[in-house]
Every structure is written in structure tokens, then in C-alpha cells.
Amino acid sequence: MSDQTTTVSELRQIIRTFVEERDWRQFHAPKNISMALAIEAAELMEHFQWIDAEASRHLPNDAAKLAAIGEELADVIGYSFALANELGIDVSDAIRNKMVKNRQKYPADQFRGRYSRDG
Amino acid sequence: MSDQTTTVSELRQIIRTFVEERDWRQFHAPKNISMALAIEAAELMEHFQWIDAEASRHLPNDAAKLAAIGEELADVIGYSFALANELGIDVSDAIRNKMVKNRQKYPADQFRGRYSRDG
Amino acid sequence: MSDQTTTVSELRQIIRTFVEERDWRQFHAPKNISMALAIEAAELMEHFQWIDAEASRHLPNDAAKLAAIGEELADVIGYSFALANELGIDVSDAIRNKMVKNRQKYPADQFRGRYSRDG
Amino acid sequence: MSDQTTTVSELRQIIRTFVEERDWRQFHAPKNISMALAIEAAELMEHFQWIDAEASRHLPNDAAKLAAIGEELADVIGYSFALANELGIDVSDAIRNKMVKNRQKYPADQFRGRYSRDG
């Protein structure tokens, strides 16, 4: 997996270069990027809209669909990094800090096999 | 920046461990994760909903707001990695491949300063 | 059903009055309303995020959940009408015209029981 | 305006007939409709993604764009009615009830010209 040797900064730099080469930072107000990100998340969701949750687990068997989903996921993460670039957010720190909160909010022993206190 | 030394795999592993410790893979059908991702993207967008694009560029000056936005961004990227985990997608490859396509679709010399052929 | 005697204009007027009484048209740029609408659609989706498609058919049996969903749906339609108000779109005409297109795109005899040509 | 003489029930019936003629209720689990609705809301938002809030106020001057936006809005409201049909929600009651709550949450004298207590 290329993910094992690729740092977050390297991917962020790919996005930054693409944006700067087109002089697109003028469009990349964080407000606009947040909209672009939500739109790409919806396009990703389109692939799952009419199929069963169970069927969605078997998508890796369909290479063409998996590639199409990979492209949409790349767009989502790409805009996430574009937003981090504009706002100067360290993604790795943000994720580590949020997961500390999540572990406090959802202690493993109380939420094993359930996603809510009622669930 | 922690992003300079953190690989994508390391972040994916943080998410994977969190999910597995709670036995939540049963809920993590790709269909459901795609919904969760879109919902988090909307929560991120909430921070930008009523402010001007220009004002959104100055958000880094507001430490409390920036931290709140960082948390939502962490959720978006976290679910993106959860989806990559379930479907076995290499995020770095997906982004690199998509950017090849994007460079073909938006040649820098034709799209400098404009985001569409009419724009 | 109150829907049988309520015109679309009456509902649009309720929204218009609410906005004008608060002098909120200044925030109601169509761009901003489109974001608000997408955010409310995501909040509506939250109710369905982790449950099965089949279970979602039985939600009318749970009065509290149904009421909560009704509130989110009201927000979605409310912002839809707010957007129609700002842009001067006749909702009934827009829906009738779109359904003409949809009937051409999805002829009943070719799409009975399938939502795509491959499906 | 056709909205002045069209009841909500009439529009809901147009959607119901379209769905039933194609035997599509099998796909219309509320979970799936909520996804379709969020996707259409994102498509609507696409029209506003890169333009200024101010520019979005002048869209009614561009007949082609306005028609395109009207189609996306029709899709959003169409799926909203499809969801109301499946769940048996009276839209007019839901909106009236929600607006009672909204008037309590945002008293006109305290929120005139501001959308939050800090704003």
C-alpha cells in the first residue's frame, strides 16, 4: 500500500501545487471549499443510494465500481486537504485530538456492539 | 507540522482500532459510512453558512472557531478513512490517480484564474 | 390531511413572513440558503444513518421519531420555499415541468421495477 | 403563480403516481429517499458553489441558470414529498408546527437583523 510510505504532507502538497498552478486560491475561500466538499460527499453517496447496506459490503468485488468510488473519495479527501491548507490546520493533530474526545464519549466497554446508549 | 511525519496508514490505523475496539464494523457498511461522511461534511459547512466568503478567509484569527472547524474536518477525514478501510482503497494512489485526471481536465494554461471554460 | 386544503402559496407566505419579521433577507442570499438546505437535508438523513432500509419503513410506528423526522422535513421544505421566494420560482410549475422530463427519461414500461437501465 | 391554486396534496399526488407507475416503492425505503434528497440538495448547491453570495442574488436575471436551478429545486421538493408519502407525514402541519417552535426560538424583537445571539 502506497499509504504506508506517503505522509499527509505529501498529499497536501499535491493539492496545493494543483491549486496554485491554476491561480485558484482566489476561489478557495474556506466557505466555498466547504460547499465543494459537501458536494463531493454527495457524489460519493450516489454510488450507495439505491443498494442495500449488505450489498455495499460486496462492492470491492466490482472493480469498475470500486475505481469510480475511489475517485469520489479522492475528491472528498482532496477538498479536505485544500481546506486544511487554506486554514492552516494540521490534519494529523486534528484527527488524534478528535479521537481522544471520541474515546471519552464512546468508552469501548459501554459501546461495544452498539452505537448509542439506547441502541 | 505533525502531517510531515505522519503517514496515511498511521491515521487509518487509528480509525481502524477505534472501530474494532467497539465492534462497530457491523454498522460500518460502506452505504452507512457514506451517509455519515456526508452528514459530517454538512456539519463542517455549518460554520460557513451565514458568513461571507471573504470573512471565511479570516477564520484562522479566531482560535476557538478554528478548533471547532478542525474537529469537524477530523470527522470528515476520519469517515473517509473508515470507508477506505472497509473497501480496501489505497488513499494515496486514489488521490494521485485522480489528480492525473484533473490535470488533463483542467490544463493549467487554459484554466489559470478561471474555474470553468465560460468563467 | 391539512395538505388537501393548503396551497403552496400559503406555506411560502408563512416562510416569507417569518423571514421579513426578523429582517433576515440580508442573510438569505440564494447561495446561503442552498447551504442551509443541504445542512437540513443532512440532519434529516441522520435519523436513517445507522438503521436498515427495511427498519426505516417501520418508523411511522415510533411516534416520537416520526415527529422528529417531521421537524427536519419541515426545515428542508421551509428552506426550499425560502429559496423559491428569493429567486421568484413557481414551485408547482417547476415540479410539473420536471416531472414531464422525468416521464420522458424514465418511461414507465421500461423502468417498471428497475431504477436504471442496468438495474 | 400556479402556487396560488395548487394544493400540497396535488403535488404529492403527482409524485405518488410517478413512483407507483414504475413500481418504485420497493426502492423508496425512507432511508434511501433521505439519501436521494441530500444528493439533490448538493446538486442544487453546485449552482452556487463558486459565486459570491451577492452574485447569487442576481441569478433571476439569467433565465437559463434560473431554469436549471428550478429543476434541482423541483427534485429536492419532489423527494421531500416522496418521503412524506412513505412516512404519512402531513407537510402543511409539519411546517406550521415547526414555525411555532421557530418563532419561540427566535423571537422577532431579539433576532431582528441577527441570526444568532452573538451575531
Question: Helices and strands in order, then pairings?
Answer:
The structure is a homotetramer.
Chain A: H1 8-21, H2 30-46, H3 53-56, H4 63-87, H5 91-105, H6 108-111
Strand count of chain A:
0
The low-confidence parts of chain A are none
The chain pair forming the largest interface, with residue counts per chain, is:
A-B, 80 and 80 residues
Radius of gyration of chain A: 17 Å
- Could you describe the largest sheet of chain A, including whether it forms a barrel? none
General description of the model:
Four copies of one chain form a homotetramer. With about 120 residues, chain A is mainly alpha-helical. Chain A contains six helices and no strands. Chain A has helices spanning about 10-20, 30-45, 55, 65-85, 90-105, 110. In chain A, helix 1 packs across helix 4 and helix 2 packs antiparallel against helix 4. The longest helix of chain A has 25 residues, at about 65-85. The mean pLDDT of chain A is about 95. Chains in contact: A-B, A-C, A-D, B-C, B-D, C-D. At the A-B interface, helix 1, helix 2, helix 3, helix 4 and helix 5 of A face helix 1, helix 2, helix 3, helix 4 and helix 5 of B.
